[in-house]
Fold:
Amino acid sequence: MSAVAPQLPAPDFDAIEAGTTAAGAVAGRSRIPWRFLGGRALFYLFTLWAAITINFFLPRMMKGDAVTAYLARNRNVTPEAAEALRALLGLDTDTSLWQQYLDYWGLLLRGDLGISLLHGMRPVTEVVGQSLIWTVALVGFATLVAFAIGTIGGAIVGWRRGSRLDALIPITTFLSTIPYFWLGLVAISVFSVALGWFPIGKAYGVGVKPEWSAEFIGDVLHHGFLPAATIIIASLGGWMLGMRNMMLTVLDEDYVTVAQAKGLPNQRVLWRYAARNAVLPQIQSFALALGFIVGGTIVMEVVFSYPGVGKLLLDATNAKDYALMQGVFLVITISVLLANLLADVAYAFLDPRTRQTEA
Structure:
């Protein structure tokens, strides 16, 4: 009986790297998991339909409506004008709820989110778009900075476990447990009222004309520094603790031990083997955080009087402005679903085990 000669790996094939979760096998790296991605896309389309349906029916289950709240603020509106407003907002009592639902889908497919009574009959897309810019710019930047600092810092703390750097974990965790409204009020009291370094609130100063100029951009950065800093401080502990715990788990894996035994530089073992695998759960959390960026931090926007989507949603809910509520909810829902879909795509390419669902 003749023995079969074993097949040796290619000269440029790194068995340690191929054995890691993040790197995967060389043969499967170029394969696109179409079945997995298609299944996830169908799931998110169904979720989007369910969210839009709930978005339509939920406000109509609330007591009162936008026209009733508008009439309470404007006593001089005639009954005929009130009926015209109901018809314009899709709240006509002569139209069945099912027909209103179909009309709502027809408007959505044409990109029409209705008009907002709270903002003087302006289109909802225009109102939401203006607030969305401020929220994404502030909360998005703060979330990205917190994720980067927390992930890199957590990887270094986990790599140097047992050192003095471990003291960063309880400090950042303690700061993240402080109620945000209290943290924001303390920041305003110290840095705005006592020291006078930063404005108390708003996105830019009174009398400043919004335009692409150095004066306006500097004023926006000056107003946004304090709320952005409080968001970073409040969320840094979670990112750092999560990455540090995953690093402690990954450092006990065999491929890390073998890489160190081969005499590879510590920096390469840290970032190419250990951190590269430990960061995978962080990606999912970061995708969720990106989705909720659009929703904004309502407490932050209320404390700092910031004109973001979160405060817009709160004002729309208090005024029972159905169209504006539905527009904000729709934008938040789509952003969360897209963020989750992007996370699934990233996982499919970074973690070869995800592709096994195709089999």
